[in-house]
Amino acid sequence: MAKHTGRGIAAIEYPTGMNQNGDPSQCWIKVKPDGRVDVFAGTADIGNGSKTIQSQIVAETIGVPYDWITYDNSNTDSSPVCTGTFASRATFVAGKAAEKAALQVKQKILEIAGKEMEIDPADLEIVDGEVLAKGAPQTKLSVGDVAAAATWGHGELITGTGAQLKPYAAIIDPETGEVDLPPHSAISYAACSAEVEVDDETGEVRVTHLKQCYDVGRALNPSHVEGQIEGGAMMGLGLGILEDCYPYYPSVEHRGGAFGSYLAPGMEDMPQIDTIMIENPSADGPYGAKGIGEMANNPQPPAIAAAVFDAVGVWVTELPITPERVLRALEAKAEPRREGKKVVFDEELSVNAVSSGGMRFEVPA
Amino acid sequence: MKVVGARVPRYDGVAHVTGRTTYVDDVRIPGTLWAKALRSPVHHAAITKLDTTKAESMPGVHAVITWKDVPLLEYGHLSALGIPADEPLLAKDEVRYLGQPIALVAAESEEFAAAAVDTIEIGFEERPALLDIRQAFDSEAPKIHQWGNWYPHFEGEMDRRQIRKGDIDWAFENADTIVQGVYRPAAIEHAPIETQVCQVVPEPDGRLTIYSCTQALYFSLGVVAAHLQQPLNKFKLVGGTTGGGFGGKVDTATETITCLLVMKAKRPVKWRWTREEEFLCSSTRAPWHMELATAVTKDGWILGQKMLTLHDSGAYARFSPYGLTKHSFHHTGAYSIPNLHFDGYVVFTNRTPTTAMRGFGVTSVSFAVETQLSRIASELGIDPIEIRLRNANRIGDTSPNGIAYTDPSTVDTIQEIAAAIGHELPADYRTMTNEPRSGELLPEHLVSQVGSTEGH
Fold first, then answer.
1. Cβ of B435 under 8 Å from any chain A Cβ?
2. Global ipTM
3. Which chain B residue has the Cα nearest residue A55?
């Protein structure tokens, strides 16, 4: 009876935005008479940080400080359409709409500043809330003064609107799955190493170390990206070894109805997590960003399953990898069936074993 | 670049960590009534009687609603994608899962509402429940859904999602080894701290203000307006701050029903699910059943993959056809596999309906394909990192439905992890890039098979 250590590897990919696209997000912006910026978007912040990220994108694109931005996603009367916060789309799709709206605002500020400064707007830029003459930064006007001039002098409202929509990619051949347009936007990639400790007496699996590398396209706010990656890792750890609505699936018996009877990961389950971010910018996300919110819980379960095999020599392919499943696998010491060039694992789980003939999984030899 | 790329503080961080964020249940409107639901106590039954007369005259009760009060009882959440409706907002003739809502009461307190729910007279004729998706296709399996036991409305009225690419028979004929495995990730609770909750207020101008925890304000606005057959300007959704949402709060579980109670009671109403309702009645991540057969050469080239996926949709379709399609489009994982044969089915059971959850459709693929690849590496005696690098998708390789990858980073991310764990790679793998294969690692007879190449 002993504790065994093991390590497993996984590599994954995940698309940004809704599958087959066709999911619009929109944004509009107005500027107050002192240059402060109000952003209206319909993107719910589910904890993913979209209020922050879209505010950063707007501040960067116009050229004003982050704390000049007020972000309002509070209601459908004042905010335009956003398909929603899912499909890893809030930064990528809604963020792009915000960038487009901010570009219009920037252009409007430069136009009015050009009139005030009597300089061609093409020769002006906005840096840190000030409109500067390119190459002669001592010639400048604050964005606040531009906004005041627009309001009280020119009788204009500085606004911008932006919308992002990739057209819906239809399946034109249902036999093959052929589509008429690319059905995804940017794809993100990740690899993960999981180290585990498996107790062959109790069957308990403890994840001790996760090393993870994500291609995030561009980390618009590294703290937020790390939060997604590390929080997602804990959700993936839960999928891998703890969580199950139906512990004896497909039976519905023993379904837990409270946090006390549902095994979600807690702080005591948290392993050391090392995060490596690489930036392979997307062609069409805001500032090269890709969406990595969802995929953050995908690589851990297979890496853990491989690590358990490395530790104690059994494959557990029904999740979660509970102590009961580990002990049963250790007891069974099941070998795959080998026949010709076929190596057949998990025969007892197959539809071929359970279905009485309605569905078969046939594999040519 | 100064703001983008910077670790600026979270916009709403201080409010969250000091408890000052206003979530839906923090909204307090004077005169609010409280809602409670009558839910199915069984997994599958015909409803033989539904009489709310007593409940309507219970103390403190202002409104009782059933399916008869819903202008459009069935509305398909994905009707825009051609996916028809199958789920009534409130059960009509039958219940198909434990906890399915049947009737709602709005009363002066949650206690009054619960007491009135207990007086609703309801009769059931229990039916056998289908729970194992592997048995849904059996001739003796109970029939549980108006469309049959699996979703029949994919493009071309096909009853499955299919992917076919290349020549699968060639792959299996030319393989040195064929590895088969079965992968079954579990149903998971979303388990948000904020349970499903909604507050609706009737405004003097006839509009309804809906305080919602939805992850998708405009999507939920459309769902409410469709069920109630009203234009969008009759409703103002107030939200945008969700107390934990991982996909389940796209379901629009409470908004329409609460509006119906308000329309009948002509008072503000709040409906907040108990923790037990959140666990037992809200949608879950789907359980999946995936069978893989992978044709490989002895040195670890993946020639082809055959896959069967059964997706446990629970009692209704909700977003499952979308999730299965996404699954099929990504069912090769991060690898280039030239010959593919994929069949996927959305199977109905008498389980709480499943829905989108973080990684929808692809979390399952990642588990199946990656565990399978680890097994293949072990079976062939090949390093698990090298076999991944060898088959990694590269620029110009094509997805299962033939779209060229433009910005893959599979090689980079795996090399980073190899370095992080101190795993020394042979030179060929150390110098590999995401660019099209140069050929040096590629046996001549596979050149036409394995993705894109340069110089061939």
1. no
2. 0.97
3. B11
